[in-house]
Each structure stands twice: as C-alpha cells, then as structure tokens.
Amino acid sequence: MGGGILSRLVIVSNRVATPHRRGAAQGGLATGLLEAMNRQGGLWFGWNGRISENPSPAPALQTEGAITFAVTPLTHREFEGYYVGFANRCLWPVFHAQLHLLHYDRSSFETYLEVNDRWARMLAPLIRPDDIVWIHDYHLIPLGASLRAHGVRAPLGFFLHTPFPGIDLLRALPGQTEILEKLLAYDLVGFQTPFDCQSLSRAIAFFLPEAEREASCVRFRGHRVRVDSFPIGIDVDEVARVARAGHNNRHGRRLATSLAGRRLILGIDRLDYSKGLAQRFRSYARLLEQWPEFQRQVVLLQIAPLSRTEVPEYDEIRRELNGIVGDIHARYAEYDWMPLRYLTRGFPRSTILGFLRQAEIGLITPLRDGMNLVAKEFVAAQPEESPGVLILSSLAGAAQELEEALIVNPYDSGEVARTLARALAMGLDERHRRWEALMGRLRRRDLHHWTETFLKALAGTFLNPSPQEHP
Ligand code: F6P
Questions:
Q1: Contact by Cβ (8 Å): 46, 14
Q2: Which of 6, 171, 283, 460 is deepest in the core (most CB within 10 A)?
C-alpha cells in the first residue's frame, strides 16, 4: 500500500477468500479485499463457511504469503440467527428497500449480537496496538463496539458495501437505534456514495438527536466518528486483460458460435430479489413486443448463480423467475431461436469477463445496489474498437458515478424497453464517446484508490483522535 501506511492491516469480513474458497464461489467483496491484502499483507479474519457445533475458542490460522487467515465456523444456531435470520432476513431486505420481505424475531437479533461478540473475543488477542482494523459489511456492524469492549485500542474502520437505508425504511427495523449506536463506535464509517452518507446523517438526527453532526463527523457520547463516501472500484487493466483472455477461451468461443451473429444483451447477478430480474425480464419482453424487428436478432443471456438458498425468500424469487422465463419462451421462442437464456449456475471469473466482452449491451438493473461492480467490469471488459453500451439502474450506487451509461428506472419497464431499443441502434461514435468517458472515471477511482483513500482516512483518525481516545 502506498502513502506510507506502515501499520499491519487487519481485515474482518463474513466471507473470507481463503485459498480453498477462491474461484466462482466467492463474492465481489472477497475478491476486492484479496487484491488489497495481496498488496499489503496482514491478518484476515472471518467465517470459514462451515457449520460446526463446537467452534474452538481460538480461530484456525493459516498463512499464505503475506496474508494470515484466521477463520472460525458458525454453529447451526448461529448460522440461522446471525446469517440467515438477522443479516439476510432483516438487514438485507431493509437496506435494499424490500420491507415486505423483512422477517424479524428477537432471538435472531440477539444471536447476531452474540456472534459479533464471540468474534470480538477471538480477534481481540490477535490485534496489536499499532494495527489498523477494517471491518466489512452489514453482518458485522456491532463488531467495532465489541472489540472496544474487549480492550482493543487500534483504529477501527467500517465499510458498508450495501446501500444505507433512509429513515422510512429504518423505522421498520426493530433494534435500529442500537444498530446506529454500534455504528457510531467506529473511528471511520465508509459508504459507497454520498447519498448513503446523507441517509445516515438524517437517521442520526431522527433516532439519536443527542448526537452532534459536523461536516463529515458525528460526535456521540464523547467519541468522534468520521463518515464519508469511498466508492469501491475495480482494477481496470486486470479486468481488461482477463476479459481478453476469457473471450478466446473454450466457453467464449462456444458462446460466439451459438449466437450465430445475433446481438448479445447480458446480465450477470447473484440470484437475489434486489437485482430486479423479474422486472428486467418483463422489460425485455416489452422490447420484443413493441419492436418486433429485434425478434430473432437479439439474445438476452442472464447468468444468475444461486445464492443464499437457505433463506426462504430466495427460493420464492427463484420460482417466480422460472415462471416468467417460461412465459417469455412460450410467447416468443422459435424452434431455432431462444430469446432468453437463463442460467442459475456460476462460471469462473475469466469466463464471465470474456462473456462481458462479447456483449453489445450490459443490462444491469437492480432495484437497489450498494455499488454493482459488474457494471464497472462490463465497461472495462469492452473492446476499444467497438465498445458496447451499459444500461444501468438509477438505483445502483454505480449510477452516481457512471454518468455516461444509459441510466434507467428499473421499475419502469417501458423506459427500459425504449432504452434497449436506443442502445441497439446507437452508432459507433456515440458508443465510443461514452465508453472513453466511463473508462476515465473507472481509472480515476479504481480499486487501489478505494483501499488507499479508506486506509489513509482511517490512519488519519488515529493521528487526530477524540480527546479521551487512543491515549
Ligand atoms: O455484497 C454483499 C454480500 O453479502 C457480500 O458480502 C458477499 O460477497 C455477497 O453478498 C454474497 O453473499 P453471501 O455471502 O451471503 O453468499
């Protein structure tokens, strides 16, 4: 890591990219953090992805190069309460504005707090006073407060990869005041966009009126926490290089042959109700209905690897999507043309990036998303000589940066269909102009910039602590 940060970095995230878990199974968060860790080295703590009824009081340690992984299993009860129950049936739907999918019970909330406390007890003895600790995502909001309670003095930073909800959503979440208090125990809280920072500021004014809000800081119970936005980026050259290689691998060539000159529209998302797949498929059907000249000329390939299958709402969205896909096929398919190819399996990263390079249109229309790195990867993967067009939901964090994409409201199927028709008709000059501008943005705020700005800001809180802290 540049910028003279000499402290050891400790990263904590629910998923950890341990050597045995790398590849298709891991999410974008773990991939991004692995980049940072590979560059700087340090300690990475989290769940090993397994269930075990007797977790040892100390984490299992494994060192690979400059990274030491410290991992622990969850018990079945912890998995159900912390991961399924509170993180993914309460925080996730509320943070993604899907209140009808919120399922709260007090015992899940308690288990969520308990797991965070158990992890803090395991991690505290491993943290040295001059470490810098970076905690990730909604599973671990209370971890900072628990670490402090277990005597950790090092600077503690938290980054939320999802959106932060507005007051109306937060009002529906039982325990919201406690969650906010835990968030304010960090030294630095980072969000994907300035919009999320504003949502936190309004939530604090509403739920914790005794907290003092300054420009980019909040003072609460004698502690000052800095709040800022740090939009996550990608390694642009690495994505472009892997996409070029993937384009020409066995899968890339098979896809190209199967298209037989038809134009590829591509969506890549975990199978999650927040991704707006039902709305996306209906918008595509509308394109085929209102612009019949595109029938037989286009293919929508949607890759949606199954995700969180233990959470009942994910089973429901899967069944709903199967129905919609069936309807589209019944209505439009011909014996030699399937308008929609819908796959619920994952592929290696190089294959995905190769597919993105082949696509003329990236159709990324979540109903809500913290950032959406696939949108950025689509741009970086495009061939310079004839770049494709990104259609991006206004409700993804990436839309606040990627202004030259075609921005749509994913709930407006008429607008998405019209935009698809517009993208399919767009000439090379305009595509090129938009792509160049987008690439400039990606390069200015890449993955390295994200880690560096966050860690510098976190180190800065230590140099400039609240009066009674970090003695
Ligand atoms: O983006 C949010 C996130 O929870 C990441 O932390 C994770 O990489 C991804 O979604 C996959 O979800 P899960 O860890 O629940 O399988």
A1: yes
A2: 283
Please state, in angstroms and rounded to a whole number, the distance separating the CA atoms of residues 459 and 468: 17
Q: Same topology for domains 2-233+448-463 and 236-444, yes or no?
A: yes
User: Which protein residues are within 6 Å of ligand 1, measured from CB?
Assistant: 14-15, 27, 29-30, 137, 161, 307-308
Protein residue closest via CA to atom 10 of ligand 1 = 27
CA of 85 to the centre of ligand 1 (A): 15
Whole-number Cα distances in Å, 72 to 1, 67, 97, 321, 459? 27, 16, 31, 35, 28
Q: What is residue 52's predicted lDDT score, i.e. its pLDDT?
A: 97
Q: What is the CATH number of domain 236-444?
A: 3.40.50.2000
Contacts of 290 (CB under 8 A, 6+ apart): 417, 421
Question: What is the per-residue burial (b if ≥16 Cβ within 10 Å, else e) of 213-224?
Answer: beeeebebeebb
What is the predicted pLDDT for the residue at 36?
75
* Residue 54 reports pLDDT greater than 50: yes
27 CA distance to ligand 1 middle (Å): 6
At 6, the pLDDT band (50, 70, 90 cuts) reads low
Residue nearest to atom 6 of ligand 1 (CA): 29
Topology of the domain comprising 2-233+448-463: Rossmann fold (3.40.50)
Entry pTM: 0.95
Poorest-confidence range of 64-68, 288-292, 310-314, 337-341?
Answer: 64-68
Atom number in ligand 1 closest to CA 138: 4
**Which residue's C-alpha comes closest to atom 14 of ligand 1?**
15
Find the 311 Cα to ligand 1 centroid distance in Å. Answer: 13
pLDDT of res. 366: 98
Give how far Cα 271 sits from Cα of 137, 311, 409, Å.
Answer: 19, 12, 20
| pLDDT of amino acid 25 | 43
As a whole number, the mean pLDDT across the chain is 94
Closest CA to ligand 1's atom 8:
27
Amino acid 463: pLDDT:
67
| Model confidence at 444: pLDDT above 70 | yes
Q: Which two tokens stand for residue 260?
A: 């037989």
Domain ranges for the chain:
2-233+448-463, 236-444
Expressed in angstroms and rounded, the spacing between residue 134 Cα and the centre of ligand 1 is 17
d(CA 370, CA 33): 16
Rounded CA gap, 246 and 383, in Å?
13
